[in-house]
Amino acid sequence: MSDAINTATPAPLPRQVADTYVDALVELDPLTGTYLGVPECHGRLPDFSPAGQEATAVLNRTTLEELTAAEARPGAESDEERRCARLLRERLTAELAVHEAGEGLRAVSNLNSPLHAVRGIFTVMPSETEEDWEAVAARMRAMPVALDGYRASLAEGLARKLYAGPRQVATVLEQLAQWLGEKDAEDDRGWFAEFAGGCPDGLRSELGEAAAEATRAVAELRDWLRDVYAPGVAGTPETVGRERYARWARYWNGADLDLEESYRYGWQEFHRLLAEMRTEAEKILPGARTPWEALRHLDTHGEAVEGVDEVREWLQALMDEAIAELDGTHFELAEPVRRVEARIAPPGSAAAPYYTQPSLDFSRPGRTWLPTMGETRFPVYDLVTTWYHEGVPGHHLQLAQWTYVADKLSRYQTTVGMVSANAEGWALYAERLMDELGFLTTPERRLGYLDAQMMRSTRVIVDIGMHLELEIPADSPFHPGERWTPELAQEFFGMHSGRPADFVESELVRYLGMPGQAIGYKLGERAWLEGRAAAQRAHGAAFDAKSWHMAALSQGSLGLDDLVAELSAL
After folding, report:
1. Could you tell me the superkingdom of the organism this chain comes from (predicted)?
2. How far apart are the first and last CA of the chain?
3. 290 and 417 both lie in a single domain
């Protein structure tokens, strides 16, 4: 009698558990599915209600149990499995901590909320075929139910006294007025109707009706936020305090940070950068009282691009040039990674530029987005370093490379497991790298780079300082000995930034609504620099920057707790 054939499926290892998690998450969150390029998701929206949030939490808890079992199996000790397991456990634990504290019941923000996720998804959806546009219509028709679920979560937060900050609410109300076309005298159709206007002629009626449904849903939510929610949260403190801040810092940075040490580091960088900025400013405007006086001079007398279409083309050329110069010398780029598009952000976006990564099959390329904020003249000193950050060699090279090596890692590590401080730290490192390589060829471009670095240092200072109400040190040129408030933070940021007042205000609202996220740029950059320095010491004269960069970019996501150790070992 022959032995029975064993057809049992092998027990999963951590990378399989992680990718099974991605499949399950996509079912609950079709927005994630669209970003990953899953066509079946394009016509649906998530359940933003308390029940929908709890369903994701149940998935996270179940996955952690499966991960514990997977880590005990033979083969789980390999570097690939170990790194994935550590990331998955850290991310899901951090997400559960945020959920269990009820943060999803007060998710009102000028940048990071279900509202912004819903509108933003339309800008990355395919729009080449009638089938694509039918999915757009289906998703627009799904908005009333999705936004009702979001409102139910905020109402639950009100009932449980879990309040969003009043500034977040006021800012979102202003954004919604713009989305609804109430701030545009020339075109009052609203954002969704304008977006739907790009559809094929045969679908105009269907898309018009769907856009009207979406617009009504946004208007109804706006009215509820104005009439019910805003009065309900009036008087709520804008800052979050140490306990909430530490929880969010872990979420955004993948590390339990020493917040006081991080605050001191922010000040150290502030003083270092201020000295460098003064040197460059003297070359541009001799006798300038501050570096920002020199930057204001550049706003009107420096190199600039005129016109919205023209600036998009200029940014595309800048990224194309960077790819041509860096590929083969400091990086080794696969063909799909070499493609990146410059786009203009839709009206009503936050003031900061941003990047969206490619779909897993690269059918949607990586894209950079410039909010014009109504401007038509764009000084180059700021654009150059920002597009090295957002595009090449910044976010695009890292996130597109993750996508390219997804089959060697796991989809989780290269997509939904992204740690913000890892990605933002790389992008800030990329700006510094371009300075090291000599790409900032004029004093004004280098001053713009230093101003961007200074902004990231002041973020560490004011974000930690105001949320924890820390004391301003005695050697500060600004209100020494006082304790931080949002008002002082906005004044300090404005004094030490070349950005216009509306940008500064938008940034402050962002820091109040996303505590712990903005510090990841500078702290993440420090981690990348420390990892590179350790690898250089280990290899000595044999250190190969190109090989190190590609190995570093092919690791997938890591929290800051793990990043330095892994980079040092490459």
Report:
1. Bacteria
2. 54
3. yes
